[in-house]
Amino acid sequence: MRSTCSGGVRSPTRERRARPGRWRWTGRTVRRRRSAPERARTGHPRRPARRGRRPVQWWTTGSSACSCQRDRVGRGDQIHRTERRSFSTNIVLLTNSVRDKYSVRVTPEPLPRQPWLRSGRSPRRQLSLESIIEAALELLSTDGLDAVTMRKVAQRLDTGAASLYAYVRDKAELHELMLDEVMRELEVPEPDPECWQQQLKQVGLQVTRLMASRPGIARIALETLIPTTPHTLDKMDQMLALLLAGGLSADDAVVGADILSLYVAAGAYEQARQTSERAAHEAAERIDKIRDYLQLVPAGRLPHLIALAPAMARQGPHGYELGLDLIIDGLAARAARTAAVD
């Protein structure tokens, strides 16, 4: 169907093919649409700016974040004044025409958190190998060695047990790291060949004191076959240096260090058990039972045990120190024989 210039109908297909920038048939008289580059070259904006209108003035009292939105409404050019109150902020809006309507939304400052709603839990401790060992030692002091498990240490750190396995392989390794942390506090002097026996005794007493102060550490030391942690190896090396300074051979020094380690750990384990009132009461009751039983033994049976029973009942810290002297004196005699042979 053909179209005429007096308002005929244009073919829809042909109208869709009309390219931008050309005259298009829309059934009425239209102007040619100019492109953006053409409008920029001529300097004429697409819509001329209005003149003779005063800018909108608005005031707020108080400090709050606000957002404004304008709508086109009504007609006329009279002054329109709006006053609105939102929370504790007064908003006064003044415009020169009712054709522009401004709506203001005020967001008040957030209220502080109520102190009674705050959690009573302490902030979460940053997870690291040092924090894990520290938490395990705290749990050891309060609940004992049997309570030191991966799950309970994780609960003390406010985390899951799976998070600990990124730092520690298992519970046995955790116990060995606890022993290593305690041994870090041990101070071993520089070897002196003139007084190595006194130095060795002081080191043994210090190790016993450190282990006895933390019940359970001596048990870990006795259960650890070969220590592999850095501080423990360092202290063993320094103790071997003391034995070698005394003139012992390599084999004698290794065996002597092993015997001293076992003795001081056993002494610390016994002292840690005797610190509690219950253990001391049980020990006293057991001694009384043995004394009463020995009185019922027929004559000629257990003669040495009966004769030394009073001396055995007097054993305590003094007996431990005496045993340490016996071991060190034996090592000194061994060193003297080795020197005489050489």
TrEMBL record:
Regions recorded as binding DNA: 149-168
Keyword flag Cell division: no
Coiled-coil blocks: none
Pfam families linked to this entry: TetR_C_1, TetR_N
Region ranges (Disordered): 1-56
Domain annotation HTH tetR-type: ranges: 126-186
Signal peptide extent: none
Protein's name in the database: TetR family transcriptional regulator
An example Gene Ontology biological process: negative regulation of DNA-templated transcription
Entry keyword annotation includes Hydrolase: no
Biased composition (Basic residues): 42-54
MF (Gene Ontology): DNA-binding transcription factor activity; transcription cis-regulatory region binding
Species of origin: Microlunatus elymi
Superkingdom in the source lineage: Bacteria
Keywords recorded for this protein, A-Z: DNA-binding, Transcription, Transcription regulation
